[in-house]
Amino acid sequence: IAIAIVAIAIAIAIAIAIAIATAIIAIAIIAIAIRAIAIAIATGQLQPAVGEGVVDEAFALIKSQCQREGKLDAGLLDDRQLVSFELAFCVAEISAARAFNSYALQLGQSEITSQISLSFSAEIIQTVLQRLISRSVDIGSDRNHLLDFYARPIVKLLLDTYLASESLASIGQEITEKNLQRLPSNLDEEKELMRETFFRFANDVVMPLAEDIHREDQDIPDSILRPAAALGCFGTCIPERFGGLQPDNSADSLGMIVVTEELSRASLGAAGSLITRPEIAARSLLSGGTEAQQQKWLPKLAAGELLCAISITEPNTGSDVAAVSLKATPTAGGWLLNGSKTWCTFAGRSELIVVLARTNPDRSLGHKGLSLFILEKPAYPGHRFKHEQEQGGSLSGKAIATLGYRGMHSYDLFFEDYFLPAENLIGEEQGEGKGFYYTMAGFAGGRIQTAARATGVMQAAFESALSYAKQRQVFGKAVSDYQLTQVKLTRMLATLTAARQFSYAVAELMDAGAGQMEASLVKLFACRAAEWVSREAMQIHGGMGYAEETAVSRLFVDARVLSIFEGAEEVLAIKVIARGLIERA
Asked: Helices 111-134 and 153-162: crossing angle, nearest 10°?
């Protein structure tokens, strides 16, 4: 009997050992497969696996349909706006997934980061396939052929494993238990120190004032502006030789993004946009300004001695920059400006405004008849101002009432024979007619910076949602203990991390002299994402999310503006991204 018992015990032990070994092998195989998927996504190999170039083929088809005499015809392209819009989002979403998985692979041993990155990739594959299927007729693809991709092993493994409710909820539970507010930044020591510095500034200086500024539509107080200037906030994109933080021999878009994120996390209107305007002005001056102009204005911008606004948009032009009609007429010693502008943010408080105007009255020249000017004026508090010159000209402004993005105030401007000296034309004589190009040089940086603002808003919304979900009790347990909340938290953290890492990747491209298209893609993705993440955060708060006493209501209305300014979502997707990719096809 004893021998039999020992034999049975040995048999059981062997069986258990075999089972354990089998499980270990299975886990290892799955891990290898998952890593292969991550590498495929990060290196761009998954796009052919999912759609075998369907997106590229669609752009090529549109190109063939929209050519006249060997050139793209704008009218024909406009007949394909919907499909162009959807394809632009496909490219933006695939690019975000690629950036996220590349980052996750760099971290290596972080299991939860890998899980979140792959769950995000699964969501993106699902979204992209649905977009393509819905537009199958427009892109000349068979719907059944697209549906077949769901059965492909790599797609099936990813969707079945990482879109399962149990998997998403398990990640969300871990996020809650560990109070995981963000994934590792993967920044170097210098950038991490910069991030931590502005994180503390945001918490200690901006956040205590943010709600009052929003609810009462106040001006940004000097108690924010002065310490922000002292930290070098306004000089993140200005070279060191002019007193800024950017190295003289290289660009540093990443530093600007890191600072912007932390400021936007505290308040989009009271802090997150402080860098945007000097950044656009500095890039324009560095692109086309004379040495004297750069020496005159860049040091003051970097030090925060001159606060800055950008005046491009007009009542009847919107995002159509080439249609600007504000008249700049030559006069003795300079130019006279006549006409109106709109949505000039921070115009009252600013002492310097960059203004795009038409210096050549021949409207057939389009953007080639535009020039860029620097306007200096006194600072005015409040919601109205009027600056009258000794020569008799005037500039008046009235703030536009907005549902969010308060603190800076956006103005309608009215110019009446407003005089600007000849030396205030950027580039002076050589700059006449080149204003559009100098403006675009500034806008590329403005778009990636806006993506960083969106990430900052998402970060704040996620932190607020996570905290509230853990504290709030409903039906006898914390909101965070429910499966749906856990899934929401997983998706929110995945989305904001994808936006962050996508913007970091684009920053590297831009600093290498490339990345113009990618800057538009990351703005398109991140700004739409910020609307969704802030909405989900508000939803987790329930009724309190709709109350102004909670910060999440401010984050929700602030997020809404991100897809509108610095290139409206529709214009960016159709006129910039899709058109650019169609031309390349």
From this structure: 120
Tell me if 432 sits within 8 A of 354, measured CB to CB: no
What's the sign of the alpha-carbon dihedral 338, 342, 344, 346?
positive
pLDDT at 327 exceeding the cut of 60: yes
pLDDT single digits (tens) 111-137: 899 999 999 999 999 999 999 999 999
Give the pLDDT mean for 136-153: 90
Degrees to nearest 5, angle at CA 494 with 492 and 497: 105
CA distance linking residue 438 with residue 423, whole number of Å: 16
DSSP class of residue 164 equals: S
- How far, in Å, are 311, 335, 361, 435 from residue 432 at the CA level? 17, 12, 13, 7
Q: Enumerate residues 6+ apart whose C-beta is below 8 A from 233.
A: 198, 259, 263, 274, 275, 304
Quick check: 36 pLDDT over 60? Answer: no
- Positions annotated as catalytic residues are 566
Q: What is the pLDDT of the chain when averaged over all its residues? A: 88
What is d(CA 472, CA 311) in angstroms, rounded to the nearest whole number? 45
Could you give phi then psi for residue 71, rounded to 5 degrees? -125, 150
415 is written with which tokens?
């110019």
Rounded Cα distance, 514 and 509, in Å: 5
Q: Which of 450, 438, 449, 238 is nearest to 356 (CA)?
A: 438
Cβ count near 461 (within 10 Å): 31
Tracing tokens 């169609």 back to the chain, one arrives at 582
**Chain CA centroid to CA 250, Å:** 23
* Residue 367 to residue 323: CA distance in whole angstroms: 7
* pLDDT digit string, tens, across residues 554-568: 999 999 999 998 888
User: Does residue 137 sit in helix, strand or coil?
Assistant: coil
Question: Looking at this protein, which amino acid is placed at residue 487?
Answer: V
2 and 62 in contact (C-beta within 8 Å)?
Answer: no
